[in-house]
Amino acid sequence: MLEIDLKSRIPIYKQIYNQIEELALKGVLKPDDQILSVRQLARLVGINPNTITKAYRELELNNIIYSIAGKGSFISPDLTLVSMSKKRKVFINLTEEINQAKNIGIQKQQIFEIVSQVYDTKSEVENK
Amino acid sequence: MLEIDLKSRIPIYKQIYNQIEELALKGVLKPDDQILSVRQLARLVGINPNTITKAYRELELNNIIYSIAGKGSFISPDLTLVSMSKKRKVFINLTEEINQAKNIGIQKQQIFEIVSQVYDTKSEVENK
Amino acid sequence: MLEIDLKSRIPIYKQIYNQIEELALKGVLKPDDQILSVRQLARLVGINPNTITKAYRELELNNIIYSIAGKGSFISPDLTLVSMSKKRKVFINLTEEINQAKNIGIQKQQIFEIVSQVYDTKSEVENK
Amino acid sequence: MLEIDLKSRIPIYKQIYNQIEELALKGVLKPDDQILSVRQLARLVGINPNTITKAYRELELNNIIYSIAGKGSFISPDLTLVSMSKKRKVFINLTEEINQAKNIGIQKQQIFEIVSQVYDTKSEVENK
DNA sequence: GTGGTCTAGACCACC
DNA sequence: GTGGTCTAGACCACT
């Protein structure tokens, strides 16, 4: 289900966060789907459960999953809201960065190349 | 000299910042050139001097201009350093943002549209 | 938490900036700690919220804090980087300023006095 | 009279500026003393006259010398004013830098060491 | 509630 | 004249 790169500069908990978020926002995981428990996932990917807990905590803070004590963790039902607000953020940030690029004289064409390069390579898990 | 869009969702001070940065980094404004005073520019574009001050302050913090109380504001002499370090940052951030956009399912085409929208805004310098 | 001297020739926003920077870089405030909101701090020290905003803005531009509209302001997680690059800068600038002082005939003793004056200002953290 | 370091990162005109300023502020050159003409000094130190001109122009702008067409250049009579305002600036900058040093946890003792190091080495011409 | 932006108007020191 | 600081009060979007 998940791929962890132990050598990456991206913290492991963030890699887990990003992949679950992506699966949820893209609809692979449906609302109210139960996801693996902290311990199950920890065993599966061979990572300390505390790290998984940290990822789940952040996912819960951002309303991507919800956890019920004694039962498990589930995908939030109101993901469209999350998705919308996240999309808005990305749009704003992207516009800002493109503006910066324009300011220093980078050509439109160069940006198209970066875009193509990102979209035409395998999925990366870069996030912030 | 500058064009302000009061209806834009980009803050006024940021619009001013962007345009002066662009003029400076592209070399239209030369090192040690004096730029309009806070009050002059405020009168010219019809907005509050505090808003101009905010833009100038930010420009100064980023070493794009320097201000001398009682004398005026001037283009920094060492813009190549700014430009170099900025170029690196912009490439990194841009790639990261595009990656995020991809991760949440935004299509390549939509990004091209944002790019075009930013680049096709009229601008005094955009004539190459 | 903070002490403001309204009669000081150092601007209020700079006093606030300095004290929060000091608390953050010395590790009293930990990464991701939430700090007082603009309005809370304004009420606490009895000055205008805009002045606090100015201090926080500067702290954010220098990556010492980060602010999220609607949530609050927090200590940056990557303070070691800030601290490192800042240390280099301070050493260079300090040496340069001392050199200038020497060049215009200021005595060593006078500089020692300034240093003592700055360091012997009461401060919550100055207890080592 | 003057020492020029062609390999220094400090611009030659600035080196000349600094040394004449130092001689004037320390009283080695007295008010209304005539200094070498641009051409004389250029020949003496083996530098292009344009560079000397630039140094003299800045000295005149800062009221350290005054030039009379056809007669030559002279040390300003009101150097105490210059000296005072320059001293004030240095005091302010120095205080600011020491504050910064304090903020990142540099000890008083370390600053004393830098001061001693600067004062106990031969005169440097560092300036900004 | 939060931070972000903007205005209007004031006073200061420096040039 | 210049930039720098500060106040008082307003509106916005987001949580």
Structural commentary:
- 4 copies of one chain form a homotetramer.
- Chain A has 5 helices and 3 strands.
- Chain A has helices spanning 12-25, 38-45, 49-61, 79-103, 108-119, and strands spanning 34-35, 65-68, 72-75.
- In chain A, strands 1-3-2 form a 3-stranded antiparallel beta sheet.
- In chain A, strand 2 and strand 3 (72-75) form a beta hairpin.
- In chain A, helix 1 (12-25) packs across helix 3 and helix 2 packs across helix 3 (49-61).
- The radius of gyration of chain A is 17 Å and the shape is globular.
- Chains in contact: A-B, C-D.
- The A-B interface holds A 18, 21-22, 25-26, 83, 86-87, 90-91, 93-95, 97-106, 108, 111-112, 114-116, 118-119, 123-128 and B 18, 21-22, 25-26, 83, 86-87, 90-91, 93-106, 108, 111-112, 114-119.
- Chain B binds a DNA duplex (15 and 15 nucleotides) through residues 11-13, 37-39, 47-51, 53-54, 56-57, 67-73.
Q: Could you give the topology of this structure?
A:
The structure is a homotetramer of 128-residue chains.
Chain A: H1 12-25, E1 34-35, H2 38-45, H3 49-61, E2 65-68, E3 72-75, H4 79-103, H5 108-119
Antiparallel strand pairs in A: 1-3, 2-3
Helix pairs in contact in A: 1-3, 2-3
Chain B binds a DNA duplex (15 and 15 nucleotides) through helix 3.
